[in-house]
Each structure stands twice: as C-alpha cells, then as structure tokens.
Amino acid sequence: QVQVKESGGGLVQAGGSLRLSCEASGRRFDSYTIGWFRQAPGKEREFVTSITWSGSTYYKDSVKGRFTISRDNSKNTVYLQMNSLKPEDTAVYSCAADTVGGGVWGYWGQGTQVTVSS
Question: pLDDT tens digits, residue range 9-57?
C-alpha cells in the first residue's frame, strides 16, 4: 500500500509563487511516476503535470513556463514549483502515484487548496 500526502497550499496574490510537496511511501518510490492534478469549483479534475522515474516531465499547456515539477528520491518527495500564479490556477491540487506504469493513477492524496487572489 502506498500512501500519498500533499502539503504547501495556501493563499497567494496573482503573480506570486507557491511550492507544493507530494510525499509518497514505498520502497520503490524511485520507480513511480508522480502526477499533479487540480480541480476547480464546478469543474472536472484536470491533469497539470507529471514526472516519470527517469525524470521526464509533462505539462498542461497553460502552465508551461510557469510551473516546474521535480523529484528528490532520497526524500520520497515530488515538488511542484508554481510561479506567476493566476486566479484561474485556483483549485484543489492533488498528487497521485502510478506504480505500475501506463498512466494508472492508483494512489491519491487528499489534496491541498491553492487560492490565487486578483
């Protein structure tokens, strides 16, 4: 069983920055793909970014150049650095672990609220 926990959300003004952390348990963390998703009020959950075991990264077009995902396998943690935040980035951000490959997000955290004020 893999446990996933996010931290680092909060309230920030437009143009500001936040860093989210996602810690996942498991002896094979370095083999997991970790993804970040977000869900705004009244909207469906959407993919934001992910990082594979090899360090390959993928981003939603609207966050490219503003968000950066990285991982520290020694700490079983993935980070999401969010810069130049916009009000439309306001959402609950959740991270998920794919431990088997193929985009199967089998383990999810509870989520952390990010609110960007205009």
Answer: 999 999 999 999 999 998 899 999 999 999 999 999 999 999 999 999 9
Strand order, beta sheet including 77-82: 4-7, 18-24, 77-82, 67-72
Nearest to 70 by CA among 90, 38, 104, 95: 95
- Three-state helix/strand/coil letters over 68-100: EEEEEHHHCEEEEEECCCCHHHCEEEEEEEECC
What contacts 56, CB < 8 A, 6 or more positions away? none
Indicate the burial class of 33 (C-beta count within 10 angstroms; 0-12, 13-18, 19 or more). buried
